[in-house]
Design a protein that fits this description.
Tetracycline Repressor, domain 2, disordered C terminus
Length: 145
């Protein structure tokens, strides 16, 4: 529980702080995604343990951690919704877009290596670009059906 609490505490101050530095919906979403990517590349062991050990948590502790994780997802969802209202994002699937963005960030500890060809900062910027592509596009190609 201490590991999960540490991860959630850190995310709960990093994500809002990053979001609040964004001047508009695009900046806020960009900052959230960069913060998520950086957390998951700098704190890989913490993130991996948090993800893998969640299955062993039960009762009130599980409910509390799930609620904290949901809070992070809701911050991302609200940023997407704000971008849609502002006309910056056009995805017809905001809920699914938010889940896809969160999942791509939470998967980083599984493959990212600090000594690899891409720095953490480069990767965070690339992931922010991927996120913007997701929320600005949204329609599957007819051949993808």
């Amino acid at each position: 529980m201490a590991i999960l609490d540490l991860a959630m505490t850190e995310l709960h101050w990093r994500i809002p702080a990053a979001r609040d530095e964004g001047l508009d919906a695009v900046g806020q979403l960009t900052n959230i995604v960069e913060a998520l990517a950086l957390f998951h590349t700098y704190r890989t062991e913490l993130a991996l343990l948090g993800a893998s050990e969640m299955r062993a948590i039960e009762g009130p502790d599980r409910t509390r951690i799930v609620d904290l994780r949901n809070d992070i997802q809701h911050m991302l969802d609200r940023a997407i919704a704000a971008g849609i209202r502002a006309g910056e994002f056009s995805t017809p699937y905001p809920h699914e877009a938010g889940r896809a963005i969160a999942t791509m960030c939470t998967a980083l500890p599984q493959w990212f290596r600090a000594h690899g060809p891409v720095s953490r900062q480069q990767l965070a910027a690339e992931y922010a670009g991927f996120a913007l592509d997701i929320v600005r596009g949204g329609r599957a190609h007819p051949s993808a059906g």
